[in-house]
């Protein structure tokens, strides 16, 4: 025991700083690390509890909603069953072929337009059904996104159950109705010549194509020269069931010619030149300015005086209403002989004055003829007026010339 005590006494303790006990023991480090790791575990548990509470709350709300829908589905809902029925009646429509629907264009492409007609299926307007006239794009017919229009259902695409719409069919019916109205009014309209054949010419008006037989043309020129020209026309036959539309240029000309009188000055354009004269279009009437009636001076080559497209003033010499022939003159409008060749501008400026002088000479000649008739037939009881005109005779010649180039075109529907 003594020796053991001596052994313990002989032991010397090292300084505290250098002693192993001065460093954290393994037990101490474990406790410290345990405190640091316990914080996220506590947070995770708190988050999990919050989520569980939210899930429980949502589950309870769902169960309450389910029970309410099962027992009282319309409780607290302002949109009633009657409102639902009214909405169906408001937006429901007949989607059968042949029925008309309102729609709004919301997209266009090279082949047509997609139209919203508030239906369960989409609707499409093909290019060929977009207009009664031939077009290359629907925009040429004014069809753009946002346009609201009435369409006709003409079919259904079996591939995707989409409806096929048409504007052309609606316009077609309106065009025939317009033609019937114009025929009843005996109105004269302008038609563009778009085709020719052996029997006559084809004219386009109101979006339709009608036929003008050769017997109903007032011009003797080659029908090929009428292509792309506009002629005054009247309706002879309008039969929608037979798709038959017959027109007459002669009837329209006869109506216009009633406004013309010998000595009237009209404005026209040169249509074509021939060795014997020039054909002048005077508001749809084709008149002949004979080479001998161009000037008092001799004209050997008409092309040196006139060219196709020239605008000039001419005077009516005569017209045959039955045959639709009109004779014209610029020779009678020359202030001095040869002015039409040297100074045509002066001729047109003085045209009204020269025509008035011409009409006065005609009136005097008629008065002298009637005076001679009185001398041979005194028992007729007719007398001359102070102006030398016999009895109630009055000239139907207008005091001023008519400019038939201002005749308005027919109204479009």
UniProtKB/TrEMBL annotation:
GO MF, any single term: mRNA binding
Residue ranges constituting the S1 motif domain according to the UniProt record: 98-168, 186-250, 263-331
Keywords tagged on the record: Chloroplast, Plastid, Repeat, Ribonucleoprotein, Ribosomal protein, RNA-binding, Transit peptide
Cellular localisation: Plastid, Chloroplast
Main location: plastid
One Gene Ontology CC term in the entry: ribonucleoprotein complex
A Pfam family the protein falls into: S1
Family: Belongs to the bacterial ribosomal protein bS1 family.
Name of the molecule in the record: Small ribosomal subunit protein bS1c
